Amino acid sequence: MTAQSFTHTSIHTSHRPLNGQQDAMRVRQLLIDSYTRMGREFNWETRRWEGWYWTITDAERDTPMRGSQAHIWETAEGQILGAAVPEEPGDLSILIHPDYRALEEDILTWAEDHLAVTHETGQRQLRTWAFDWDTDRQDRLRRHGFVANSSDCFQHRRRLASDPVDDVPLPEGYSLRSITATNEDVEGWVTCTNATFGQTYLPEMHRNFQVDSPSHNYDLHIVAVAPDGTFAAFAGLTVDDTNRTATFEPVGTHPDHRRKGLARAAMYEGIRRLQALGRADVVYVANWGTAEAGQFYAAIGMAHYATLTAWDKIF
Fold this sequence. Notes:
With about 325 residues, the protein is an alpha+beta fold. It has nine helices and 14 strands. It folds into two domains: about 110 residues, no CATH class; about 120 residues, 3-Layer(aba) Sandwich (Aminopeptidase). The strands form two sheets. The chain has a nine-stranded mixed β-sheet with strand order 6-7-14-8-13-12-11-10-9. Strands 1-2-3-4-5 form a five-stranded antiparallel β-sheet. A hairpin with a 2-residue loop joins β4 and β5. The two termini are about 25 Å apart. InterPro entries: Acyl_CoA_acyltransferase (IPR016181), GNAT_dom (IPR000182).
């Protein structure tokens, strides 16, 4: 596909499909730099991007143009200033350099043409997202005909990494440990996370993520092991060393082992290990906007500080 060019007030850009791992690493750097520039979550955190790009099948891993469903906007010198990432069909995430937000106009126009889904009625729909504090994007979305859907949202939460954590006693027969690179642990992790979230991930997808994603750390991915040796709960931490932040993703408990404090214990163990490393000042997590999930994270000191809300356009 030929790159298309646009000229903004002070910079000339072109856009094209994302093309392989080198581009993926450049998008990752955009996310790191935008946090440094803003001093807060603004785009995706690196863990979310790494999960999107590197959680793939073996066949996808061998595809040179993998990730090409995402589009990037870049300068003539090759600096990526923005990206349109379809997390699901009809679901757009905008990644943008904070100093070049006017590019969001181009990204939205392109996404309306290329990422919207068509319903049986013939109507087309596109969803995207905006933080509650981001009036710039909210105004832009209104001008494009989007409407906020407050029932679909993520609560973003954080705590200081140095805050003390409680000792959580485990039920008899359960234990905590970090995961390893063995096939048994890959299969155990996927079995537990699939049952928790209703997913159908293949073990090879998680193995490829572990091996290829730049930030993955086995020691910061904690599992609660049940008496029968299966994984009962999990909590993964990913560190952005540049910005001294860490993100919990994923966190959950197998349906057969809930209400035992296992996910909380796994998160606390991850935080203790993070404290020992001294690599992060702030710990983040995001939960789907349900009261139960919010109460769980609030109880372990993760304070709600921002809400990311879905905006929909039907046309």
